[in-house]
Amino acid sequence: MPKPKNPWPPGVTIRAVRAEDAEEVAAMTNLPGFRAGTLRLPYSRIEQTRRWIEGMDANAVNLVAVLDDNVVGNAGLNRHGGRRSHVGNIGIGVHDDFVGRGIGRALMSELIDTADNWMGLRRLELNVYVDNAAAIGLYESLGFEREGIFRDYALRDGQFVDSLAMARLKL
Hints:
By secondary structure, the chain is an alpha+beta fold. The protein has helices at about 20-30, 30-35, 45-55, 105-115, 135-140, and strands at about 10-15, 60-65, 70-80, 85-95, 125-130, 145-155, 160-170.
């Protein structure tokens, strides 16, 4: 059966992250909007990012979205082991200048397709800060459901913020 037309915005390519993407990925993760949605500390170094890319686990899938030869998004899927080998954890971020253009949806769609059709995962999990309404809306539109709140989950810009646990089950 042919795969349906991809949901990517015009001109966007989704591909596996490469070591040579380290500089662009590090620069993107240092942007204030990108960083605000993650657990990353300020001032990511290119060398750290390159080591992270080169040291990825074999059970991990890490993608970038590329537009006009520039990395504009990054997303990853990490499979758990043992008795949770049916579960994957998702992380995603989009370049501050490209939010709201469908890049997050394209990245998430590719991760979900990989989880469902290539890894046989039954459960996908993610955490999102409770004040990130756009991301929560995206995740809900893709079948993720709210499961609970982690109070004072992380320190962000001097304030503790709550995180929403979300999951998508493939039954």
